[in-house]
Amino acid sequence: MLTQKITTLDKMEELNLVNESQKYAESILQSLSPGFHYHNLAHTREVVEAVQEIGTRSELSPYDLETVILAAWYHDLGYSLGEENHEDESIRLMKEKLLELGEKQERIDQISKIIKSTQMPQNPKDELSKVMCDADLYHLSTDLFSNRSEYLRKELGEVCQKSFSEKEWKKVTVEFMNAHSYFTNYAKLILEPRKKKNLKKLKKEKATDSKYIEKLENQVVKLQNKVEQTKIQKPDRGIETMFRITSKNHLTLSGMADNKANIMISINSIILSVLVSVLFRKLEDYPHLIVPGLILVFVCLTTIVFAILATRPNVSSGTFTKEDIVNKKTNLLFFGNFHNSQLDDYMWGMKEMMRDADYLYGSMIKDIYFLGLVLGKKYKMLRKSYTIFMYGFIFSIVSFLIAMLFFKPGV
After folding, report:
1. Quick one: average pLDDT of 42-53?
2. Does the first or last residue of the chain, that is N or C, have fewer Cβ atoms within 10 Å of its Cβ?
3. CATH number of the domain enclosing 59
4. Does residue 189 come out as left (phi exceeding 0), alpha (psi in the -120 to 50 range) or beta?
5. Same domain, residue pair 171 and 294
């Protein structure tokens, strides 16, 4: 009975030791600089989980498993003091904390040995160190391999000032994985095949990237040639003059159309005024003129309607989005596309358009095109207005003559 109580007490002490170590490690790792994309709290937690998996499958005793878990929590704390000699700093921090928690020196020395074994190139001498080393590089065999590898590349660039291009990094990673081997039987049996699968995929990507880079280089050469040709074929004064004169002609024609419409509105308004003020007052004396008078009124009103339609403005929402500018879907040279927009947005859009010669000249072409569409609509309405007035006025005059010649007042 006494033995069971002692065993239970030991387990509680070990559990408390792991919990306190976890809290201590998390407090330090959470304060790491943002540049540690790989060696951070997430990585340490993954290593602890891997230790539990590999250690359990390797049939470690509960005490040994707890020892490796402790090493996993402490093994990267040295990064809080810098990248160089981080294993030694991790060991120092571990010793200070475990001594504070009252751990035996023998176990502290064992954990120090385990942490030291993770130093590259890995060279573990005992089973516990092998479990730790395999857990530290467990990610090589997971689906998150590419993600974690990219984190490590970013960290080396930001923390160690060792920048690698994607091509260079893939080459370094392939060389590392070719030289690496797991140490525990479980890792050799289960993790090694997964790692080889990731390695095969990486080699395939590397080969594909080489072909893709070669293709990109060829495209860059072609683009450079096109740029040179574009510089040679840059729009000259003649083209710019063509845009200016065409736009001016369109505006002149639009003004002429408006003047013609105003003429029709004015003439028919005068005719209607005369009919209302003079003729309609005497229809009781001249009832035979009612029909000709109504015909003339209808002709004048119809003529005025089409003349007004020719000059009636069509205003759009007057707003645009940044996506419209990026996708070149709006023409900022036409007021209807920006009159409700903020000045800052309009200035940004115009600057973006001016940076892109193709977008700028395309907008000018669109502006001329849509001016042409408006002109076409104006002149169609004007033609209808003039045609109705011409034939309608003739028909009205004829009807007045017939009424006056063949019908007498009171008849």
Report:
1. 91
2. N
3. 1.10.3210.10
4. alpha
5. no
